[in-house]
Amino acid sequence: MLNIISKHYLSKNISGPQKVVYNLISGLKRINIPFVVNKPLDSCPFLLIQDDIDSIHKAINLPSSIRVIVGPNVFLLPKHLSEDINLSRFVYLQPSKWTKDFLSKLHFDQCPVVVWPVGIDLHHNKIDDRKRKIVLIYCKNDSAKELKKIREILDKRSIAYEIIVYGSYFQSEYEEKIKRSKYIIWLGRHESQGIALQEALAWDIPMIVREVPKNGFSYTTKKEAVLFTPKEREFLKIASVAPYFDERCGIKIYDIDKEFEEALIKMDKDYLLYNPREYIKDNLSLEKQAMELINIFKNEKLFNQEIEFLNKEKIYFSSPIGNNCMLWIVKDYTKLFLKSLKYVYNKIYQKIIA
Fold this sequence. Notes:
By secondary structure, the protein is α/β, with parallel strands linked by helices. It is about 40% helix and about 15% strand.
């Protein structure tokens, strides 16, 4: 049986980390793997600590018979960990190869690091192609210059489009726009996994993705300037906007000025010929990724002990974790309130400039 420790399980604010825990739970249910959520740390032979530092502190002293995996939402950079945390008995999850390589470049060697992306829901009906009338532009971070260029080209070609901005929409609005989209133009920055992007692919919507340029982006965002040192930002050249993507999903470009219009002409003509849903089914289904996590727990080379995996126990859902969680919940509700204000502001602004 697996015990999942997750503060984001309690969250009312839809986010990447929240989708990690809920998609994992959906996958476990579909393959009939028993689990509990936020139970005592010693209650099961397998323990996943998704995001709670307090639980990591306590798990250090658990019996060696309990296998512990931490992540993928514990810390962004090794320097954010307090010096008194010893991860040597754990396995740490990273959602893509480039994030694992990034940790390696930062000389993280406290414990084994394993790539594990969460599964993406495919259990919804395919979109009616007759309702796909627009092009959706997805903007994340500072993309004003690229957005201006893209809009000019779309206007020149009389292609109808709508824009959605990261952090300024609710999930229902995003899905509604996806269902009306012929394809998506994705202006991202760096994605550890890219769950929102993969959700659109799961609806069978292909994309033109502006990928991280070979020499990195020519400018630094305010967020990056705060989070990363100049040396760490140099390592971001290995990052990806879409770490899970192949020719079935659409087209990747590296330079808007040189490559976008040609990619747009091809996509506008052939968007029905792509098959991104098949890519998600083959690589990132809920069932496949839930089973992959269980296989990581069973990997003797990672843990060096034998544990009998009990799969006949009853599935429970628990009350909230008690590890200083009230403050986190208050912060979560505050984020949701601020997001609602931002959403209203953007709607008013869009009406003014329309």
